[in-house]
Amino acid sequence: MRLAILTPSEWDAQFYAAELARQRGLFEAAGHEVVACRWNAADDALLRGVDAVLPLIAWGYHLDGGRWFDLLDRIAFRKVPCVNDVAILRWNSDKAYLGELADKGVAVVPTLEGEGQDERLLARAAAQFATDRLVVKPRLSASGEGTYALRPDEPLPADVRDERLVVQPFLPDILSAGEMSLLYFDGRYSHAAVKRARAGEFRVQPEFGGSEEPVEAPAAARALAEAALGCAPLAPAYARVDLVMTDDGPLLMELELIEPDLFLRHAPDEGAGFRDAVLARLG
Question: Percent of the chain, pLDDT > 70?
């Protein structure tokens, strides 16, 4: 097969080149051709010329939501196989899915949806969560972009005032325990890593100086991850489940089904399970 891996809208070799080389190598070793294309340059000519689309490194899609959803529509219209499925990508692009999972009984970090222009949004969230420190992020966001830790009396930063937002209580467990990421391929647990923020920061992404280390996920973390995956609208071929371990048990932070760092560098099989899950979906 000829497979297209979607890459960032703006290329940064420090973060993306090694991951592309790793993923390309896995599929090429299995006898498939791989082409890399910036997600926002994936035109109809590309879609006509490939057997499947893998949105595995499409970082930056959240910065141009209109173009991102247009691309998903074109992939679906042309019936080009996409892994994960386009329906999953649409659903997972909007953090409103957290509310859906909570309604289904998944232990999610408490989340309030609102509009950035609502001057009472932070005050209402503080009252609802009984806390004076909050985390605010756009509903369409990734990689810590537009994510802030704020007090309820602080103004929203200018770049999120016109956005649809989610607001959550700030969990100090992030600073002490870090954020745990569990990786699943075709519904089967593969491996896990803990991401930790640098001193003076709460965001764990490498763009903000975060670090990582492999870890074995405890049973409670795996149970929560599998409950969350079971509530997705379709079973994903690959998934990263981000959670935080608290004194009261794990809480889901994000379900990453679009372009997550899969931490294949820590996978015990060096990514073979991931590759096989993708290829199985393609028949």
Answer: 96
Per-residue confidence (pLDDT) for residue 202, from 0 to 100: 67
Using the predicted structure, report yes or no on whether residue 207 has a pLDDT greater than 90. no
CA dihedral 110, 113, 116, 120 (to 10 degrees): -70
Q: Which CATH architecture has domain 112-169?
A: 2-Layer Sandwich (3.30)
Q: Do domains 2-82 and 112-169 have the same CATH topology?
A: no
Query: Per-residue pLDDT averaged across 53-78, rounded?
Result: 95
Q: What is the pTM of this model?
A: 0.94
> What is the pLDDT of the chain when averaged over all its residues?
93
Residues in Cβ contact with 176 at an 8 Å cutoff, skipping those fewer than 6 apart:
none
Give CA–CA dist 242/4, Å, rounded.
Answer: 26
Q: Where are the domains of the chain?
A: 2-82, 97-107+173-281, 112-169
- C-alpha dist (Å) from residue 144 to 3, 44, 212: 29, 31, 16
Helices (H), the chain: 13-29, 44-48, 65-77, 86-93, 97-103, 121-129, 173-177, 219-230, 272-281
Rg (CA), the chain: 19
Tens-digit pLDDT profile for residues 132-190 = 999 999 999 877 678 899 999 999 999 999 999 999 999 999 888 889 999 999 999 99
CATH code, residues 97-107+173-281? 3.30.470.20
Residue 246 phi/psi, 5-degree rounding, is: -115, 175
Distance of CA 212 to the CA centre of its chain: 16
Q: Which fold has domain 2-82?
A: Rossmann fold (3.40.50)
Distance, CA of 20 to CA of 119 (rounded, Å): 42
